[in-house]
Amino acid sequence: MKKLIFTLVGAMFLFVSCQSDDLQIDEAAKPDKATKVEKDFKIKNYAGEIFVDFDPGDPDAGIPPSGTGDFEQIGGGIASHIGQFTEYNTANIFDFPGTFEGMFIAANGDEIHFGSRGFQCDGNYEFGEECPAGTPVILYYVIDGGTGRFEGAIGEFEINGKFTPFGPYTGATGTGCIKY
Q1: HEC secondary structure over the chain
Q2: Which of 105, 133, 100, 130 is nearest to 116 (CA)?
Q3: Do the Cβ atoms of 73 and 48 come closer than 8 Å?
Q4: 8 A C-beta contact, residue 42 and residue 28
Q5: Which of these, 41, 170, 151, 123, lies nearest to 131 by C-alpha position?
Q6: Which residues of the chain have pLDDT under 50?
Q7: What span, in angstroms and rounded, lies between the C-alpha atoms of 90 and 53?
Q8: CA–CA separation, 144 vs 152, rounded Å?
């Protein structure tokens, strides 16, 4: 008899708890799996190659500058959230930072895309002024998407290094934030 009473009470409880007519669920209180979370982003670049279609000429000898100004950079490094990466950047030196586009490509193929907001040489130079080679430089970037787990990523970061206009750079470090 006790088993029958417990079974009937249990069945009533199950029946009542499964009724959805009076059940109120606050959808706003439920976590959204698509919500992006801001995380620290740290980068360490290593040596890379820079290719520029530009010859400054020699104004003193009357030889004008020539070339398209197209810039291509291939390098790599390691960064939080992406691990070891290959870096690929393109720009036009006559329209920098406007045309600068870059990406970090992870070993698994996921990409983080970014563009430049500009740079500052030693705190004393603005873009367009001469920035001597070897001068400390801060480059500012905006993360604007990616592929794989970084699809729709947003954020920003800055890179601190030395200005090397046309030769291989030796490395730099950066910090910022990323949401994905």
Answers
A1: CHHHHHHHHHHHHHHHHCCCCCCCCCHHHCCCCCCCCEEEEEEEEEEEEEEECCECCEHHHCECCECCCEEEEEEEEEECCCEEEEEEEEEEHHHCCCCCEEEEEECCCCEEEEEEEEEEECCCECECECCCCCCEEEEEEEEEEECHHHCCCEEEEEEEEECCCCCCEEEEEEEEEEEC
A2: 100
A3: yes
A4: no
A5: 123
A6: 1-23, 25-26, 29-31
A7: 12
A8: 7
Token code pair at residue 73 = 């950079």
CA atoms 135, 138, 144, 149: torsion sign: positive
Beta pairing partners, 138: 120, 160
- Please confirm whether the linkage preceding 136 is cis (ω < 30° from 0): no
| pLDDT tens profile 136-152 | 778 889 999 999 999 99
pTM listed for this prediction: 0.70
Compute the half-sphere exposure of residue 39: CA atoms within 13 Å on the CB side of its CA: 13
